[in-house]
Amino acid sequence: MSASMNVLSLVATEQARGERLDRVLARNFTEFSRARLQALIREGAVRIGEITTTDPSLRLRGGEKVTLAVPEPVPSEPRGQNIPLSILYEDPQIIVIDKPAGLVVHPAAGHADGTLVNALIAHCGESLSGIGGVKRPGIVHRLDKDTSGLMVVAKTDKAHQSLAGQFADHGREGPLEREYQAFVWGRPRADAIIVDRPIGRSPSHRERMAIVAQGRGKSALTHLYIEESFPSKAPNPLVSRLRCRLETGRTHQIRVHLSSLGHPLLGDPVYGGGFRTKVNRLDETSRAALRALDRQALHASILGFAHPVTGKKLRFESGLPPALALLESALRSFREPL
Questions:
Q1: Of the residues 144, 169, 196, 294, which is catalytic?
Q2: Has 146 been annotated as catalytic?
Q3: Domain span at residue 163?
Q4: Which of 111, 109, 176 is nearest to 140 (CA)?
Q5: N or C: which end of the chain has fewer CB within 10 A?
Q6: Mapping DSSP to helix (H, G, I), strand (E, B) and coil, where does residue 92 land?
Q7: At which of 143, 169, 195 does a domain end?
Q8: Quick one: 118 and 58 in the same domain?
Q9: Residue 135: per-residue pLDDT
């Protein structure tokens, strides 16, 4: 094996008899997702004894020595790509954009290019900050691929350091302000709710986040305010529009917190799958609008922060993008049959 490989090994226990190879590896090497391990197996990175296998579903007999050779990561320099950007503000230090849904923020497995970083490199050139590694130049926070809305990006190291500090504080003592518009199933029990539940990697679905026990994950605090419900006069509205204010910035925080309350986002395939049948209660216009949206109904609508050089408070607002505005309009006309 190459010297650039990180070699891991285990001896399958008797209890592993009859289990799939990828499951055994995922249980023992928890730093890797099962999907990543399956890919490594198919690439020939796993040996059973001295024999290479490319079958993730191979059943173990128990007692075998299993060796996993993980290639060392190779830094990749993203290339600039001429991807249109909706720029709300720009100066020599920062750039504020309104990210469309569907745009991945930075290169990762499955998204080597066509990302916001590729677009920023083409737009900003050599001025873009490199703090945090070449794969995420200038990025101090991010939005999920299918979440639209406001982002600020640093163009210099000094700006990056200042903004990173503000996002780490997340408005508890500093000036950072982040709000989202969210369309959720049902109506929460109160007009204003504070959700204080720690978030960590799901133990059963490694690609998901989940509410975890105190001490196992990271603290996560979200403020929720009901803005509107649909139908507006129904005793049990089918959908509500919420304003969500973040006091921490965990991966999938709003999506996980809303799902934990029993009010997941409309169109969320990961955290709202159990609510698909509720779509049938919408009228055809609203169903068509939700199909056209084809993503979670979440938009980063307000972003405020102190300019990293002047200290001046900057605040930006973004209205709902067309597909989400169309859904809102359809829901306002929706009248659930008695």
A1: 144
A2: no
A3: 75-169
A4: 176
A5: C
A6: coil
A7: 169
A8: no
A9: 47
- The phi-psi region of residue 163 (left if phi > 0; otherwise alpha if psi is between -120 and 50; otherwise beta) is alpha
More confident residue, 216 or 287: 287
The pLDDT of residue 178 is 96
DSSP state letters, 202-247:
-SS-TTSEEE--TTTSB--EEEEEEEEEESTT-SS-SEEEEEEEES
Average pLDDT over the chain, rounded to an integer:
89
Same domain, 56 and 83: no
Of 137, 130, 150, the closest CA to residue 89 belongs to 150
Angle (CA) 232 192 188, round 5°: 55
Q: Are residues 333 and 282 in the same domain?
A: yes
Residue in 207, 315, 321, 193 with CA at minimum distance from that of residue 258: 193
Q: How far is CA 256 from CA 35, 220, 247, 271, in A?
A: 21, 10, 15, 7
Percent of the chain with pLDDT over 70: 92
238 lies in the same domain as 128: no
For helices 34-42 and 21-28, the axis angle rounded to 10 degrees is: 130
Q: What would the 3-class secondary structure string for 184-203 be?
A: EECCCCCCEEEEECCEEECC
Pairing mode, strands 298-306 and 148-154: parallel
- Any idea what the CATH number is for the domain that residue 20 is in? 3.10.290.10
Give the phi and the psi of residue 303 in degrees, each rounded to 5: -140, 120
Give the closest residue to 150 by CA, choosing from 322, 310, 301: 301
- For residue 48, what are its two tokens? 């059973």
- Sequence-ordered alpha helix ranges (H) in the chain: 21-28, 34-42, 116-124, 157-169, 253-260, 284-293, 322-333
Q: How much is the pLDDT for 33?
A: 77
**Of 144, 169, 194, at which residue does a domain stop?**
169
Token digits for 19? 């289990």
Q: Are 147 and 90 contained in the same domain?
A: yes
Domain count, the chain: 3
Q: Are 225 and 192 in contact (CB under 8 A)?
A: yes
CATH number for the domain harbouring residue 329: 3.30.2350.10
- Is there a single domain that holds both residue 136 and residue 227? no
